[in-house]
């Protein structure tokens, strides 16, 4: 009799724990998820392992060099997750150029007046020159500018930049993917008025941004929508926004204009193919968030690397990859300069350099 009573008490306790956990997961979860559909890529991707042939620049000196910029004199810049902006001189020497601090430096671009502009997910837009480091935009619409992700400068000095998520912070970026709701933005900084304005809202994790060869439109990447949008800057255009390319074989991260007028897009695998079912269940998404260790298990970005070259009509010309992450993985940017492709990454301690003549 005592054993029956003990088992009954234990069963009641176990049920109460399960119910309590379930209620906690559902009602105190940081996400309010939608179902995320994965597109079927329209471009047949055949692995070529070309990204395994890179030369490793600065190996061991760089902490997660996400983005790369190169000025007119050929000096290469990168911002690393230990708070440094570092640069590679033409003689092959690396310089710890400017210390900004923190671990939230993201996209960078060269500036027409010298130096670079950096996106700092905590501080906002930062101008870095030989003389100083200046935060040029940290507020907009009466609130703090947070999670600035990538930036490009126009010929008139205007800065066009993305905000990846207005809900989730830099360290919780994957929660935005799990939630599957549109919290991203495309913004413009006007240097004359010192004001920030919204060009596009409700984007699916707004990421890389670049200008067209004639600077008559912008391309903005929506990572978990697996597409890039074209935003026309011409006032006479009746339709300001259209899809530039969709159904990409990976989530677009950064995008850069190539010298021939095409575009290089880095593509990340935000979830392994075998775990896509997680994004088709709201309950499973809540469960993943409740156990943070599971988040790393379903993030597939560390398993491979891929970049695509796309023409001005939004057609993929070629794809380069490291299918197993043997040499490079989590490649977040691809910049072409003088016949080579320079690759930023969040999972390597170097920048990859690939001669395009071998492709």
UniProtKB/TrEMBL annotation:
Sorted UniProt keywords: Glycoprotein, Membrane, Transmembrane, Transmembrane helix, Vacuole
Transmembrane segments: 6-28
Keyword Magnesium: no
Location(s) in or outside the cell: Vacuole
Domain of life: Eukaryota
GO molecular function, one term: hydrolase activity
Family annotation (SUPFAM superfamilies): Calcium-dependent phosphotriesterase
GO cellular component, one term: vacuole
Domain Strictosidine synthase conserved region residue range list: 153-236
Keyword Glycoprotein: yes
PROSITE patterns: PROKAR_LIPOPROTEIN (PS51257)
Similarity-based family: Belongs to the strictosidine synthase family.
PANTHER family attached to this UniProt entry: OS07G0614000 PROTEIN, STRICTOSIDINE SYNTHASE-RELATED
Protein name: OLC1v1037908C1
Organism: Oldenlandia corymbosa var. corymbosa
């Amino acid at each position: 009799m005592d054993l029956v009573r003990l088992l009954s008490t234990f069963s009641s306790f176990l049920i109460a724990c399960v119910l309590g956990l379930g209620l906690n997961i559902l009602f105190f979860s940081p996400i309010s998820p939608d179902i995320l559909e994965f597109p079927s890529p329209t471009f047949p991707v055949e692995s070529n392992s070309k990204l395994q042939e890179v030369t490793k620049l600065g190996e061991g000196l760089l902490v997660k060099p996400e983005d790369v910029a190169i000025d007119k004199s050929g000096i290469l810049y990168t911002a690393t997750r230990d708070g440094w902006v570092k640069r590679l001189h033409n003689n092959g020497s690396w310089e710890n150029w400017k210390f900004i601090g923190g671990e939230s430096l993201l996209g960078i671009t060269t500036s027409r007046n010298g130096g670079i502009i950096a996106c700092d997910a905590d501080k906002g837009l930062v101008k870095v020159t030989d003389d100083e480091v200046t935060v040029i935009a940290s507020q907009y619409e009466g609130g703090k500018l947070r999670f600035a992700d990538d930036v490009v400068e126009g010929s008139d000095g205007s800065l066009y930049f993305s905000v990846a998520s207005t809900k989730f912070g830099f360290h919780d970026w994957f929660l935005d993917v799990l939630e599957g709701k549109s919290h991203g933005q495309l913004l413009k900084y006007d240097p004359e008025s010192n004001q920030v304005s919204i060009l596009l809202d409700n984007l699916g994790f707004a990421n890389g941004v670049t200008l067209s060869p004639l600077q008559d439109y912008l391309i903005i990447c929506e990572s978990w929508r697996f597409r890039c949008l074209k935003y026309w800057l011409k006032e006479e255009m009746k339709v300001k926004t259209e899809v530039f390319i969709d159904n990409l074989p990976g989530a677009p991260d950064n995008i850069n204009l190539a010298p021939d007028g095409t575009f290089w897009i880095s593509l990340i695998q935000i979830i392994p193919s075998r775990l896509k079912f997680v994004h088709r269940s709201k309950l499973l998404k809540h469960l993943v968030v409740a156990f943070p260790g599971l988040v790393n298990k379903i993030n597939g970005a560390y398993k491979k690397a891929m970049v695509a070259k796309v023409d001005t009509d939004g057609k993929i010309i070629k794809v380069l990859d490291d299918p197993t992450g043997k040499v490079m993985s989590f490649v977040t940017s691809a910049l072409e300069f003088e016949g080579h492709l320079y690759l930023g990454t969040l999972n390597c301690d170097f920048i990859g350099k690939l001669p395009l003549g071998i492709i």
